[in-house]
Write a structure and sequence with these properties.
It contains 8 helices and no strands. It has about 180 residues and is mainly alpha-helical. It has 2 domains: about 80 residues, no CATH class; about 55 residues. Helix 7 packs across helix 8. The chain is elongated.
């Protein structure tokens, strides 16, 4: 049996275990139905054929049917039903957002935990991390520092002031002497 690794056997993952199990069960059921129907195709091919057939107009021409189903012809109704269930399971997986599934109590606890951490310490950690990244990119010796700063702003989702401050704190900038004029 060709059970997909998409559902995963991991204890922890980006998606809830219930969604991963549902996906695995749908794949297994579709594979069994394909064997019972004696169709020489894998579950991804059956799913692709199901999705293609959904796009056919109400009054398909022979060319549209051939393009959608290929030489084998239409899928049996039992396979279509299982392919639809698998398609819906994939849709649930792809639209899953963890933040949408947090209870209010859990969200409040996350906010409390973040609020307990000193803000200045968090900024110091971030600036230290940016400084290490700048050092690895050769910021001190670079001729075009602006492009490195732009990349750092994108990577760390911060402003130019933070990046330049991180470079200064990491010792990657030269000291300027004050003018005597």
């Amino acid at each position: 049996m060709q059970i997909s690794k998409l559902a995963g056997k991991h204890k922890f993952g980006r998606h809830p275990l219930a969604l991963r199990r549902e996906l695995e069960e749908c794949i297994t059921e579709l594979e069994i139905a394909l064997r019972i129907a004696a169709l020489p195709m894998t579950w991804p091919e059956a799913l692709r054929q199901y999705r293609t057939s959904r796009r056919i107009s109400v009054r398909p021409t022979a060319a549209l049917v051939a393009a959608a189903y290929g030489i084998r012809g239409p899928l049996p109704q039992s396979v279509i039903t299982l392919a639809r269930d698998l398609d819906k399971a994939f849709q649930r997986i792809h639209t899953y957002e963890a933040k949408d599934n947090l209870t209010q109590g859990v969200a409040i606890e996350f906010q409390r935990a973040n609020a307990r951490r000193p803000r200045e310490k968090r900024r110091e950690e971030k600036l230290r991390e940016i400084g290490l990244w700048l050092r690895a990119r050769g910021y001190a010796e670079a001729d075009d520092k602006s492009s490195i700063v732009d990349d750092a702003m994108r990577v760390f989702d911060c402003g130019e002031t933070d990046v330049r401050d991180a470079a200064r704190r990491a010792g990657l900038t030269r000291r300027y002497r004050k003018s005597t004029n």
